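dumping this here so i dont lose it
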């Protein structure tokens, strides 16, 4: 299985580059902060490309693929566009158009705009693997309730948007592929929408119990996360199928607040998880590794647990 890590762009430094280039990793990704800060953090990443490029070039030169993974939809369709195009934005459960999260997934003009912006983003943030991870907004439940969208599940609506993104990505990169992110409210497979030919599955079981293996049949939370996999893999197939995990995500374990807490990696859960994912046909897994940069090392020292992941991942 190919394995990789994702870190915040502001944490990328010489020390991370040294560790990454000397590791067994296949992939390295930059992940701007999500949540309500997602559009601003994506814009900052784009502005910071010149500073980051020497680091990325060194990583690419070591044979490791470079990707970017981010909640991009609000950057694609900024809330300010609602003044001219309120119909582009989702209708909430009270029947009101709102700019809080996501868009109207069946509005053709909105999808065309997403497609155009996805092409622009793929040119600004190219992927050396030709895999792109431009995600919808970072929320659990924010589907559109307009009359036309009402016929579609949250996952259907997400796939309508990801299909538009995939078309834009393909114009910028003819070999480009765009993910469908199975995450929170879009964890279950879509039922009424088919994926474009260049869509692949990215499965992110954030609502799991991280103290137990994902395949633990005695863990109700983890069973709920994995019971969707048959439908997802039937629809999207195994080509490029990717797991987005949280094995090293010290930002989550620190409550998304700094200073970061001391981190401990559970190798036994990691190995059980990887064995399960491989048995289901996944060929790639990445993990967030945020809040483990220079600030962490200054506070907590060099962490053997992190090196254990980087250098003992051959299975």
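and the seq i came up w/
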């Amino acid at each position: 299985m190919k394995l990789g890590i994702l870190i915040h762009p502001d944490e990328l430094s010489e020390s991370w580059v040294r560790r990454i280039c000397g590791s067994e990793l296949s992939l390295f990704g930059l992940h701007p902060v999500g949540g309500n800060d997602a559009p601003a953090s994506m814009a900052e990443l784009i502005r910071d490309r010149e500073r980051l490029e020497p680091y990325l070039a060194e990583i690419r030169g070591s044979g490791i693929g470079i990707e970017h993974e981010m909640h991009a939809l609000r950057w694609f369709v900024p809330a300010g566009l609602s003044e001219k195009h309120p119909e582009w934005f989702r209708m909430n459960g009270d029947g009101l158009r709102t700019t809080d999260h996501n868009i109207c997934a069946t509005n053709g003009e909105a999808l065309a705009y997403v497609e155009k912006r996805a092409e622009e983003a793929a040119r600004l943030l190219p992927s050396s693997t030709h895999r792109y991870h431009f995600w919808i907004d970072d929320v659990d439940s924010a589907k559109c309730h307009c009359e036309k969208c009402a016929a579609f599940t949250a996952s259907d609506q997400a796939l309508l948007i990801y299909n538009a993104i995939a078309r834009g990505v393909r114009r910028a990169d003819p070999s480009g592929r765009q993910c469908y992110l199975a995450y929170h409210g879009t964890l279950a497979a879509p039922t009424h929408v088919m994926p474009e030919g260049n869509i692949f599955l990215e499965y992110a079981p954030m609502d799991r119990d991280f103290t137990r293996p994902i395949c633990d049949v005695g863990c109700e939370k983890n069973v709920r996360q994995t019971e969707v996999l048959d439908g997802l893999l039937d629809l999207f197939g195994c080509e490029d199928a990717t797991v987005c995990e949280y094995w090293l995500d010290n930002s989550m374990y620190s409550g998304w607040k700094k200073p970061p807490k001391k981190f401990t990696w559970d190798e036994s859960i990691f190995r059980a998880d990887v064995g399960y994912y491989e048995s289901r046909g996944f060929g790639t897994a990445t993990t967030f590794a945020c809040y483990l940069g220079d600030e962490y090392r200054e506070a907590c020292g060099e962490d053997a647990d992190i090196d254990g992941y980087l250098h003992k991942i051959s299975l």
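Residues 154-172 form the longest helix (19 residues).
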